[in-house]
Structure formats: C-alpha cells, structure tokens
C-alpha cells in the first residue's frame, strides 16, 4: 500500500513513520515529493538466519577490505543513489543526513585503502534496524557489507532487521517475506527494547570472527 503525502517531511516524521511500520520513498532522483509505503508483504533478514555461501566466506577470509562504521555516511548514501533508477532524491539525502547527525541513521563502509567500494545504510530505532539501501563497486562488496552489518546488529542486541522489500540478491542471503501483521508484531516488540549499533568495537571484528559467529555457511 502506498500513501501519497504532499506535506513537508521532517526527520521527526521519518522516525514516527518507521515506528508505525511505514517508510518513505520518492518517484525518482529528480522528484522530491515523498510518499509513504506500507507493503502487504515485508522483507526481513532473520538475525539468526543470515546465509553466507562458501564463495562469500572465501571473499571475507581474504580480508582485502577494511570495514568502517559511520566514517562517511553521506558518501554511502550517495553511492546508493548513483544508479540509473533510484528513489534517493536530494531531499532524501538531506533528511537522512539529519537523522545521522541525530544519532539514528548509520552506515557501514567497505574500503579498499581510502577508496569506498561498497556500503549499506539504515536507521536504528529501539532494537529495530531499517535497512535503506546498499551499493557495490567491486564484486561482492555489498554482500560483505551485509555480513558485517548482521554481525554488528547481533552484537548490539537488535531483534529486527527490516529490508523493506525482498530481491533475489537478498533471498540468497537469507531474506524472507512476512505478512504485514507479523511484521507489525515483530516491530512493536523490537521497539520496546534497546540496542546499540556501536556496541561492537571494530578492533574486535575479524573475518574469522564474523564467519564463526554465523552458523549458516554452506
């Protein structure tokens, strides 16, 4: 279900929307009119069911990339927007920058030296994390970003990882669809709890540690 909204959207309105199970989108990068989406079926990644294939495990073990947290939030959002078909407009970028400064929006960066080659960003509210978008400039770097993100969410005490929709790409990583009613139940439960996106220190994270903590490799 899509609800059109002609009002000016504020960061506080975004947080209110997330807490009620809706999320914002636009018609495209050149259209700043924001509307709210409440899908009949919701994509989620169960935090105990993230799937790491053998090929992805091999990539993670190579440790060729450095992982950053909130080191360049705006660059990650712009990386997600840099595609032919995107809903991330300048207004969306500005709103999420404000949420980031307020401490609600976070990014995870995959870096090759100083070069940003992949990443993911989203919003943390209670013990729910709402994944907004991800991007990849090298093979598998968005999957690597998700593997480290799921590890971080588990370490921080999160209970819900909302991916909004499900794609073939996400399905290979363990994403599933649940009904709106089931999503609302999980969301409201997660909102009664607290979690810490930065509970896991990067110095404590190693490729082997991420893989060992994930029991769904195959």
Summarize the structure.
This protein is of the alpha+beta class. 35% of the residues lie in helices and 25% in strands.
Name the descriptors.
25% strand; single chain; 35% helix; 8 helices; alpha+beta; 218 residues; globular; seven-stranded mixed β-sheet; Aminopeptidase; three-stranded antiparallel β-sheet
Q: What's the topology here?
A:
Elements lengths: L1 E3 L6 H9 L3 E3 L9 E3 L3 E4 L9 H9 L3 E4 L3 H9 L8 H12 L3 E8 L2 E11 L2 E9 L4 H15 L4 E5 L3 H4 L4 E4 H12 L15 H6 L6
Parallel strand pairs: 8-9
Antiparallel strand pairs: 1-3, 2-3, 4-9, 4-10, 5-6, 6-7, 7-8
Describe this structure in words.
- The chain has 218 residues and is of the alpha+beta class.
- It has one domain (40-212): Leucyl/phenylalanyl-tRNA-protein transferase, C-terminal domain (Aminopeptidase, 3-Layer(aba) Sandwich), CATH 3.40.630.
- It has 8 helices and 10 strands.
- It has helices spanning 11-19, 54-62, 73-81, 90-101, 141-155, 168-171, 180-191, 207-212; strands at residues 2-4, 23-25, 35-37, 41-44, 66-69, 105-112, 115-125, 128-136, 160-164, 176-179.
- It has a 7-stranded mixed beta sheet, sandwiched between helices.
- Helix 3 runs antiparallel to helix 4 (90-101).
- The longest helix is centred in the last third of the chain and has 15 residues, at 141-155.
- The radius of gyration is 16 Å and the shape is globular.
- The N and C termini lie far apart (36 Å).
- The model has no long low-confidence stretch (mean pLDDT 91).
């Amino acid at each position: 279900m899509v609800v059109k909204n002609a009002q000016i959207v504020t960061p506080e309105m975004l947080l209110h929307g997330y807490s009620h199970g809706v999320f914002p989108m636009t018609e495209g990068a050149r259209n700043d009119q924001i509307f709210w989406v409440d899908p009949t079926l919701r994509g989620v990644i169960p935090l105990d069911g993230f799937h790491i294939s053998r090929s992805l495990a091999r990539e993670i073990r190579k440790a060729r990339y450095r992982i950053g947290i909130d080191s360049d939030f705006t660059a990650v959002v712009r990386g997600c927007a840099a595609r032919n078909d995107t809903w991330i407009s300048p207004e969306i970028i500005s709103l999420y920058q404000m949420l980031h400064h307020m401490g609600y929006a976070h990014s995870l960066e995959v870096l090759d030296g100083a070069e940003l080659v992949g990443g993911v960003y989203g919003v943390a509210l209670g013990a729910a994390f709402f994944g907004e978008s991800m991007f990849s400039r090298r093979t598998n770097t968005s999957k690597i970003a998700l593997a480290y993100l799921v590890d971080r969410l588990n370490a921080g005490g999160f209970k819900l990882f909302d991916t909004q929709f499900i794609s073939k790409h996400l399905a290979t990583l363990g994403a599933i669809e649940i009904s709106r009613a089931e999503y609302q139940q999980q969301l409201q439960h997660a909102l009664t709890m607290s979690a810490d996106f930065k509970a896991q220190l990067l110095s404590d994270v190693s490729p082997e540690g991420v893989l060992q903590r994930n029991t769904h490799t195959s």
